[in-house]
Amino acid sequence: MLLTVDVGNTNTVLGVFRDEELIANWRLTTARVQTVDEYGVLTRNLFTIAGLDVSAIGGVIISSVVPPMNWTLAEMARIYFDQKALFVEAGVKTGMAVLVDNPLEVGADRIVNGVAAFHKYGGPCIVVDFGTAITFDVISAKCEYLGGVIAPGLGIASEALFARAARLPRVEIKDPGRVIGTNTVSHMQAGLYYGAVDMVDGMLTRIKTEMKTPATVIATGGQAPLVAKGSKQIQHTDEFLTLTGLRLIWEKNQAADAQGKSSAKSGPPSQAKKA
Q1: Catalytic residue among 109, 129, 137, 238
Q2: Could you tell me which residues are beta bridge partners of residue 24?
């Protein structure tokens, strides 16, 4: 089995694959201050509740946009799963060329999402990820990462209203059913929800115009189902897109390692074979 871990600024999502089947998943709050042992005990407890055997884990792969947590998670994998974690970073084989000014600036999760989206839905495609930020990632028909957009997430927008306006409360982010609200809560919900839906649709229209070609649009992340319900542009909602991408990248790197070891064992070709 394979343990996949996607570390975001707000949430950390864990998934366990048996071959290609996702058999368990959990969404946790990203806790930067937790220790190796706290993460280890928590993860092992989740395995116990799900009836999974920790010793059956044969690999751990992690995508992280929170660098201070990387060492903690690497040690957790080593101590509690007896595995060396593979991080999605420079040097890891993804099968996707990153055609931006500085590839190291692109978050690991965005590359992982692109790999999964191209594998499942083909290209060209656009991935919209609803996390702390709303990100748009554009993948070409040749499985190339072309670039994207970063916009504030719904949670950030909601918290900003609460923090900066003395009389505005915290509200649940939901579709209020109509744009013209009749009280403060419905006013805010309409602004947050319909504002996000129209921003996403407008941005997708602009991206497609710039691409000059039709593209499949896939949404993922915590608020993807909510926004996709009102969107005219989003065609697929895939809750576990990132975990799938992590599995695909793990498999690609395992295959590359196996090929490398096989080549090393066979040694250099003889003079007779060269001739």
Answers
A1: 109
A2: 16
Please give the angle made by the CA atoms of 238, 98 and 220, to the nearest 5 degrees: 15
Structure confidence at residue 273 (pLDDT): 38
Residue 63 to residue 68: CA distance in whole angstroms: 13
CA nearest 126: which of 32, 233, 46?
Answer: 233
| List of residues 6+ apart from 223 with CB closer than 8 A | 130, 153, 154, 173, 196
- Residue listed under structure tokens 């974690």: 85
User: Among this protein's residues, is 109 annotated catalytic?
Assistant: yes
- Look at residue 274 in the predicted model and tell me its pLDDT: 39
What would the 3-class secondary structure string for the chain be? CEEEEEECCCEEEEEEEECCEEEEEEEEECCCCCCHHHHHHHHHHHHHHCCCCHHHCCEEEEEECCHHHHHHHHHHHHHHHCCCCEECCCCCCCCCEECCCCHHHCCHHHHHHHHHHHHHHCCCEEEEEECCEEEEEEECCCCEEEEEEEEECHHHHHHHHHHHCCCCCCCCCCCCCCCCCCCHHHHHHHHHHHHHHHHHHHHHHHHHHHHCCCCEEEEEECCHHHHHHHCCCCCEECCCHHHHHHHHHHHHHHHHHHHHHHHHHHCCCCHHHHC
Return d(Cα 54, Cα 43) in angstroms, integer: 9
Residue located via tokens 């990387």: 70
Give me the helix-helix angle, 108-121 and 241-266, nearest 10°: 90
pTM given for the model: 0.88
Question: Which pLDDT tens digit goes with each residue over 102-112?
Answer: 999 999 999 99
